[in-house]
Amino acid sequence: MSTARLRAESLRLGYGETLVVDGLDLDVVGGTVTAVIGPNGCGKSTLLRAMGRLLTPRGGHVLLDGKRIDKTPTREVAKVLGVLPQTPQAPEGLTVADLVARGRHPHQSWYRQWSSDDEQAVAEALAMTGMSEFAERTLDQLSGGQRQRAWISMALAQGTELLLLDEPTTYLDLAHQVDVLDLVHRLHSELGRTVVMVLHDLNLAARYADRLVALRDGRVVAQGEPGEVLTESLLREVFDLEAKVIADPVAGTPLVVPVGSRHRTS
Amino acid sequence: MIQGVTASTALTERRRRRVLGLVLLLLGVVAASLASIAIGSKSIPLDAVWHGLVAPGGSENDIIVRALRVPRTELALLVGAALGIAGSLIQGHTRNPLADPGLLGVSSGAAFAVVVGIFGFGLTSLYAYVWLAFLGAMVTTALVFLLGSAGRGGPTPLTLALAGAAVTALMQGLISALVVLDQQSLDAYRFWRVGAVAGRDSVIIGQVLPFLLLGAVLAFANAPGLNALSLGEDVARSIGQHVRRTRVLGIAAITLLTGGAVAACGPIAFVGLIVPHVARAITGPDYRWLLPYSALIGMVLMLVSDIIGRVIAWPGELQVGIVLAMIGAPVFIAIVRRRRLTRL
C-alpha cells in the first residue's frame, strides 16, 4: 500500500439542494503532482475545497495522514496543508510582503508573534517565486501573473508539505501559465511538496502532473499517469470531445488536438 | 538572500514610521485633552488647568476642572476610542467601507430601550439610561445575530447587515410610535438622542468603563483573525483561522464598544464611519496597527468636535453629536471624492 497523504473516502458533496459529488474515493500519494481535470461543473473545485476542509462534506470523510481532517484543529491542518482558492481577494493597499507574511498565520499565536523563522520563510518564498523585488508593491500594482505568484508565495510561506491549488493559471496568458506551472514543478522537484491542482488546459496538465484524475458528474472516470488517462476514448467519455491524441513533440506526453465541426471529415 | 534582507529592512523602516505616528497621535490626544479642559464658557488658563489636575484646592477653577471638564474630557476620550475601534471592526468584518458601528442595530436597540424606560417607567435619570441603553444594545445584537444566522450557511456579513437593517427599521418604527403618544417622552428622548458628552459625571464613566475595556481587549484579540479574514473566508480557513469564532469575537467587541458608547452619550454618528478611513490611509490594511490608530484618531476627533461645539455657540454650547454631523458630512464627502472608496 503506497502512502496516501490525503484521502477522500466515499465523499458526498453539494451546495444547497444540489449534490455535486456522490460517493467519491481518491488517494493523493505523497511527493506527487496530481492534476484534476474534467468539464465545467463536474465538481473539480468542489472536490478540492472539500479536500482542503473549506467545504464540509454531506457524507464520507477526508483523511490527512490517516486522521480525519474535520477532527483535527484547523491550525494544525494549516501547518501541513495549504489551499489556494480560485481568484482570491485581498484588501486594497496590501503589499506583497504583508500578504506573504500572512501565510505565517498558523505558526503564530498571541504569545508567539513574528520570529526569525517567519522572516526567513517569507524571504525564501519571495525568492522562490521571483517576487522579492516586488515585495513593497501593493497587489493592485501587479500584473495578473505577478499577482498569482504573490498568492503562491503566501501559500509557500505557510510551509506546508501539501498544496492544493484551484485553477492557478486562470486568467493568465499562455506564457504566464507556463511560468506558474514551472514554479509548481520546482516546488515538487526542489522542495518535495505534494501538489494537487485543478487545471483546465489538458496539454499542460499532461505535461506537469505525475497523475491525472478525470472527473465527470462528480465521479472519477479515470486516474493514473497522463499517458494512460488522456486517450481519445476518454476525451469522448468525459468531455464529449472528438479529438486526436498525439505525442507532445517537446515532452512526449499526450497532446490533445480537438477536431471540431469545421474540420470534421466523416 | 540579499533581496530578502532588503525586504526586511523595508519592513523595519515602515514599523518605525508607524510607531512614530502613534507617538505623534498620542501627543495630539494630550494636547486636545488639555484644550478640552481649558476651553469652555469659562476659559481656564493652562497653569490653572495644571493646578486643578495635580493639586486641586477649593477654588472655582479647580472645581470646574475636576467636576465638569475632566469627566467630560475622559468620556470624550473613551467614546472616541470605542467608536473608532468599533468602526474599523465593522468595516473589516462586513468588507464594507460605508458600514458604521450601528449597522448591527446596536444604536437603535439602545434608543428603543431608553424610550421604553422613559415612556413605560417614567425614568429620567442619565444613570438609568445607561443600563437601559446597554441592555437594549445587547438584546438587539443577539437578535440580529440569531436572524442573520438563521439561513443555511450561518452568519455572513451580508445576512448580518440585512438583519441589522431590518431590526433597525423595526426599532425606529416602535420608537416613533411611542414618542408620538407622549409629549414628555418625546422631550426626554430628543435630548438623549442628540448625543453629548456634557453633563455626564464620573459615575457614568464608571458604569460603562468595564464594558468598554472588555470590548477593547476583545477587539485587539480579534485583529490577527481579521487580518486573515480580509483575504476571504476560504484563505482564512486555509491558513488555520476559525471563521465563525472570529466573527463572533468581532461582533462581541463591536457590541460592547458601541453599546458602551451609546449608553454613556447617546447615539453619536460619523466617528465610527470616518475614523477608519483616516486610519487606513496611514496604516494600510493591517488591523494590528489600524485598531490603535483608529482609537487615537477617534479620541482626537471627539475632543476637537466637542471643543468646537463649546466655541462656536459661546457662551452656550452645541452638543458634540450635532457638531460631528456638521463636520462629518463634508469630511466624508471629501474622503469619498478624493480617493475612490477602498475595497476591503
UniProtKB/TrEMBL annotation, chain A:
Alphabetized CDD domains for the sequence: ABC_Iron-Siderophores_B12_Hemin (cd03214)
Keywords, in A-Z order: ATP-binding, Cell membrane, Ion transport, Iron, Iron transport, Membrane, Nucleotide-binding, Transport
Location(s), subcellular: Cell membrane
UniProt keyword Cytoplasm, yes or no: no
The keyword ATP-binding belongs to this UniProt entry's keyword annotation: yes
Pfam families referenced in this protein's UniProt entry, alphabetically: ABC_tran
Ranges where the ABC transporter domain occurs: 6-242
Membrane topology: Peripheral membrane protein
Protein name, as recorded: Iron complex transport system ATP-binding protein
TrEMBL record, chain B:
Subcellular location: Cell membrane
InterPro entries with a match to the protein in the record: ABC_BtuC-like, ABC_transptr_permease_BtuC
Gene Ontology terms for molecular function: transmembrane transporter activity
Keywords, in A-Z order: Cell membrane, Membrane, Transmembrane, Transmembrane helix, Transport
Bilayer topology annotation: Multi-pass membrane protein
UniProt similarity note: Belongs to the binding-protein-dependent transport system permease family. FecCD subfamily.
Organism: Kutzneria albida DSM 43870
Spans traversing the lipid bilayer: 19-39, 103-121, 128-148, 160-181, 202-221, 251-278, 290-312, 318-336
Highest taxon of the lineage: Bacteria
GO terms classed as biological process: siderophore-iron import into cell
Name this protein carries in UniProt: Ferric enterobactin transport system permease protein fepD
PANTHER family from the UniProt entry: FE(3+) DICITRATE TRANSPORT SYSTEM PERMEASE PROTEIN FECC-RELATED (PTHR30472:SF1), FERRIC ENTEROBACTIN TRANSPORT SYSTEM PERMEASE PROTEIN (PTHR30472)
Gene3D superfamilies given in the database record: ABC transporter involved in vitamin B12 uptake, BtuC
Chief place where the protein resides: membrane
